[in-house]
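Section 4.2 – Deliverable D4.2 (structural model, holo form)

The reporting period included a commitment to supply a predicted holo structure for the target in complex with magnesium ion. Inputs used:
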Amino acid sequence: MALERTLSIIKPDATRRSITGKIIARLEEGGLRVVAQKRIRLTREQAEGFYAVHRERPFFGELVEFMSSGPVVVQVLEGENAIARNREIMGATNPKEAAPGTIRADFAESIGENCVHGSDGPETAKEEIAYFFSACEIVG
Ligand code: DAT
Ligand code: MG
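Output (structure tokens):
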């Protein structure tokens, strides 16, 4: 199995509730290493650009509003099969459907405010990492 990198975002609902530490512990205990990390606040434009693939969806406005509503922690996670592993640790998009013991099942309050983002494939991981980090900010 190959060593992979994925982009993770701890979303504004989680930073607001001071559960970033708990979330990072889940990621690390799940076998992922944090090889880059910063706390930033996204502008509307940055949030729109990041989620551009969803711009035609009915929830796009809400999503952009939410993602730029407070600080986020953006991270690059590294590990064996990191993209799929991270999504497993996160749980399903809708916390009501997320498996017990996942971050979204245990911490998220709604489908729109679901605590974490994780890249969904190798191509998006590469693009999303480059959206936030330069090569010299990633220390494996
Ligand atoms: P994921 O974040 O699990 O990759 P996604 O890419 O389908 O899910 O959607 C991106 C985000 O958009 C998701 O984390 C929360 C929001 N979202 C998705 N479906 C939604 C819905 N039906 N109503 C409100 N927000 C939604
Ligand atoms: Mg997605």
